[in-house]
Amino acid sequence: MKRILVVGAGLAGATVATILADKGWKIHIIDKRTHIAGNAYDYVNELGERIHKYGPHILHGSGESRSVEFLSKYTLWTPYKHHVKALLPNNSYTPLPICAKTIEDTFGIVLENEKDAKRMLEEMRVNVKIETTDDLFRATVGDKMADIFYRPYTKKMWGSYAAKIKPSVGARLPVRTNREECYFDDDFQALPTMGYSTMISNMINHENIETSLGCEYKHTMSEDYYHTFTSQPVDEFFGGVFGRLPYRSILFEERKSKVCQPSSVVNFTIQPDYTRCTQWDLFPNSPARAEDSKKKLHTKTYERPVDICDNPGEYYYPVKTEDSEDMHRRYKVISNARKDITFIGRTGLYTYFDMLPCVEKHITLANKFISLHG
Ligand SMILES: Cc1cc2nc3c(=O)[nH]c(=O)nc-3n(C[C@H](O)[C@H](O)[C@H](O)COP(=O)(O)OP(=O)(O)OC[C@H]3O[C@@H](n4cnc5c(N)ncnc54)[C@H](O)[C@@H]3O)c2cc1C
User: Fold this and answer.
1) CA 37 – ligand 1 centroid, Å
2) Which residue ranges in the chain fall short of pLDDT 50?
């Protein structure tokens, strides 16, 4: 039997590889990086803290989903309810997403009940037709809250004003009128107990899978395989014939600090360069924990979003505009015509996925391949 080539040892590649290997296919995974797990890669540093090299990754979704059932074969879970605080201009902290407490902290008021919070939001909201992310901000929380919590963050994150961004970008943000301060609403929120790298290593540690790291894909490689699944950016694969698809990237700056922050992730409001800062020993699956009184230093990572040109090769967030979607449609036409290759993952499909939807999508892709090829 000829082997299958999987380009990319991230969650997408590992999911496809594991399912096909279980069906008896011989798989060769390659990754240009020197580690597995793609952007979910984590490791334990010299202070015993578990660091997520490419930014904090929290699993969240439905506990009943196929993806949770699938991943649970490869890891134990440490339950973790994620909390995020925003640093206000007066140096105090308030919870995000916006909830009753955020409104109280912002305006220095006390809300008696949920009805009060609803009324306050109602008064702040602007009745506007939603054509941009900025319209969405104004319609959901009004100008004052948008100026503090959304507009500066969006400008840093996307390098563009909210008024120039499609509404779908801002639509991910919930606004609450109750006192729930948890970042996600999902019933399943967890971290793999031994980290993402161990979870993915357990997936691909299979008698039918060989993995080569530090190995960049070349077009001639596919000739030696029955089929190729590739996480390579689709525009890069085709040599940018229709132009380069835009991405935002992030520069990660690590610092050691003696001071603990109030939540594992703090979002900045008026700070002009950084979007957020993560303190790693506040995650419950970090071997060294912040609450250990002997621990004097805490590793923190600051995130500075940049254009992909300023961090070449590090493709993080597809920038969805009419132009980029139009360009992507053209790439889709030529990629669909390649029956020997399936594009997978965030950059192969030019779609931002959270981890559980990513696993869900690639279980489906792998099963489709099996239904056609056995
Ligand atoms: C900053 C950030 C924070 C995130 N936080 C969360 C979170 O909290 N919760 C959540 O659920 N999701 C989160 N995600 C999303 C999560 O990272 C993705 O769902 C996941 O990484 C998708 O996996 P993937 O395999 O598609 O891509 P990747 O993890 O990027 O893996 C692709 C792999 O392909 C390799 N590759 C590419 N081209 C080549 C080539 N030519 N030759 C060889 N190898 C190649 C790359 O080196 C890479 O290792 C976050 C993403 C980012 C960017």
Assistant:
1) 8
2) none
